[in-house]
Amino acid sequence: LYAKLAEIADTLSEKERYVLSRRLLTEQPATLQQIGARFSISRERARQIEGNVLRKLRAHLHDSDLKYFAA
Predict the structure, then answer these.
(1) Are 23 and 35 in contact (CB under 8 A)?
(2) Distance separating alpha carbons of residues 34 and 42, to the nearest angstrom
(3) Is the pLDDT confidence value at 68 over 60?
(4) Could you read off the pLDDT of 4-63 as tens digits, one per residue?
(5) How many Cα atoms are found within 13 Å in the side-chain-facing hemisphere of 66?
(6) Rounded to an integer, what distance in angstroms lies between the CA atom of residue 22 and that of residue 16?
(7) pTM, entire model
(8) CA-CA distance, 22 to 9, in Å (whole number)?
């Protein structure tokens, strides 16, 4: 699973990789406010980036053998 996530992460922008690691792959996720502050963007823009990351992950899940990890 982690190898596939790393492969997917290679296709993401720097902001998207940061959101993936700090918001989605940690036990204590960063807030949208914290992510926005890191990149000097609004919370809303950080939320939009998070949505883009989730869409890309779903697309890879749909197109690959990662569907076996989805529950």
Answers:
(1) yes
(2) 10
(3) no
(4) 777 888 889 999 999 999 998 899 999 999 999 999 999 999 999 999 999 998 888 776
(5) 17
(6) 10
(7) 0.79
(8) 13
* Tokens linked to 14: 């720097």
For residue 7, give Cα distances in angstroms to 1, 27, 36.
10, 22, 25
Residue 40, sorted as left (phi over 0), alpha (psi -120 to 50) or beta, turns out to be left
- Decide if 20 contacts 53 (C-beta within 8 A): yes
CA distance 69 to 50: 20
32/64: higher pLDDT: 32
